[in-house]
Amino acid sequence: MLERIFKPTSEKFAIPFIKILTVLKVRPNTVSYIGLFVVLSGSYFFYLENNLLGIVLIFLGSAIDGLDGPYARYNNLTSERGAVLDSFIDRIGELVIWSVIGISYTNSDIQLFTIFAILVSSNLIPYLRAKSESYNIVNKKGITPRPERVIFAVVFMYFQLPFIYMYIFAIFTWLTVFQRFIFLYRNLDI
């Protein structure tokens, strides 16, 4: 949802950074690795309860990770390997963010189960998009694609929101899973 609204603006905002990366001759995959390292560092600082540094690093890492695709396209360096690596790195980053929430912000089995449920749905959402694309179906359905999931996780940790918000968010992530599944299923040949 946010991606549709902000993507054109964010890609224009990224142009100066893309030009810097071009001058430095950084490979797009290196940008992905740097973004992951910064997200992992931010997650670690959240784990240490240094929330301000955690939020800054996770958002910075997500922004860096968001540069790899536009940077590769700008310099005609796109590749199937790069796309697979980017998706793989995104999953690792989300795993660590949700793991920190599971370790640091849960007090009961049901809360931990909720985090597992969000983690599973967070992997099913991009899987269903990729599976759809394998059938030449564009499937970006739902209200919780990756930017929304990362933003929610960071806001939850930073403000230490009541866990009721996590239960509600789990419902939204699973609604997204079912929206994408149903859309794909209905668009397949019988």
Question: Tags for this entry?
Answer:
mainly alpha, globular, Four Helix Bundle (Hemerythrin (Met), subunit A), 190 residues
What does this structure look like?
With 190 residues, the chain is an all-alpha fold. It has one domain (2-186): Four Helix Bundle (Hemerythrin (Met), subunit A) (Up-down Bundle), CATH 1.20.120. Helices cover 81% and strands 0% of the residues. The chain is built from eight helices and no strands. The protein has helices spanning 2-24, 28-47, 51-65, 68-74, 80-104, 109-134, 146-159, 164-186. α2 packs antiparallel against α3. The radius of gyration is 17 Å and the shape is globular. The two termini are 30 Å apart. The model has no long low-confidence stretch (mean pLDDT 94).
Summarize the structure.
With 190 residues, this protein is mostly helical. It has helices at residues 2-24, 28-47, 51-65, 68-74, 80-104, 109-134, 146-159, 164-186.
Alpha-beta content class: mainly alpha
Give Rg in angstroms. 17 Å
Strand proportion? under 5%
Q: Give the count of helical stretches.
A: 8
Shape: globular
Query: Which CATH C-level class is it?
Result: Mainly Alpha
CATH architecture: Up-down Bundle
Mean pLDDT across residues = 94
| Low-pLDDT ranges | none
